[in-house]
Amino acid sequence: MIAKALGHPARVAIIEYLLKVNTCITGDIVNELPLAQPTISQHLKELKNAGLIKGNIEGNSVCYCIDENTFEILKDYFSKIINTVTDQKCC
Fold first, then answer.
1. Sign of CA dihedral 42, 28, 15, 62
2. pLDDT, position 22
3. DSSP conformation letters of 41-72
4. Is the pTM of this model over 0.70?
5. Which conformational region is residue 59 in: left (phi greater than 0), alpha (psi within -120 to 50 degrees), or beta?
6. Contacts of 32-35 spanning 24+ positions with Cβ under 8 A
7. What pLDDT score was predicted for residue 87?
8. pLDDT at position 50, please?
């Protein structure tokens, strides 16, 4: 599910934006990316369902940020792959 969520360039752009600003509301993302608000909301939903971001309700809006636990799991996973590939002796 995580790989599928990261398989769309708009979702990657949203992740990159959240990494840059640390936290934001949907309107901030709409102002940053050339996509309609309903499209942004759908991408946010997919990222949240995959556990890549989390959202907290603040008044009438939702404040989104990166879910650091998921990214820590991804970091450990890819570190193991890199170490395995580095240690392999291929023909």
1. negative
2. 87
3. HHHHHHHHHTTSEEEEEETTEEEEEE-HHHHH
4. yes
5. left
6. 35/10
7. 72
8. 96
